[in-house]
## 1
Amino acid sequence: VQLVESGGGLVHPGGSLILSCATSASTFGYFGMFWYCHAPGNEREWVSTISAAGNCTNYDNSVKGRFTISRDNIKSTGYLQMNDLKPEDTAVYYCNWLQYWGQGTQVTVSS
């Protein structure tokens, strides 16, 4: 099983990005998925969680109200919509599903 991420990049403060995490796993919709971030000098940190059906979500306080996690179980893809980005959001973002991890996508917020 592979998780393939896309959507990172360089944005100005206040900008938006949407990250995608695609897999071919036929059982994707049976389990929750997670997003983490890893900034230089820090440990990998949890960002958000979505339940298998997508009807329950949780967020770290630092992103609550700015980020939205979602999923499309038909497409076996998860998303992280990131709005009002701040320089402190700069990190490599990873999706996680069961024991599988995406390759990471760099998000850089800078003026």
Note: The first strand starts at residue 3 and ends at 6.
## 2
Amino acid sequence: VQLVESGGGLVQPGGSLRLSCAASGFTVSNNDMSWVRQAPGKELEWVASIHSVGVPAYRESVRGRFAVSRDNAANSVYLQMNSLQPEDTAVYYCSKSWGVRIGAPRGQGTQVTVSS
């Protein structure tokens, strides 16, 4: 199982980024997948999930701004992030899980920094 995130960067408040997670060793469409993040000095927190049947779920603070999706042909999961705010600054990880699950396969993470 391997997960590789990409797409992070530095963006101004109100800006957008699209994170990608390329999976190998398993089929994303047969699994629940999540995006989780960790800000400096804080615990890992759940951001969004997509159920194996395709139903998404979001933490309250990102609902309406973020959208999780997947491309079965590319075996990849995505997180479209709009209206980014400084409090969204964190390392974002793709996880083979529903929500935060300690020990679940995760990628190396991609840094998202929201700052003017």
Note: The longest strand covers residues 17-24.
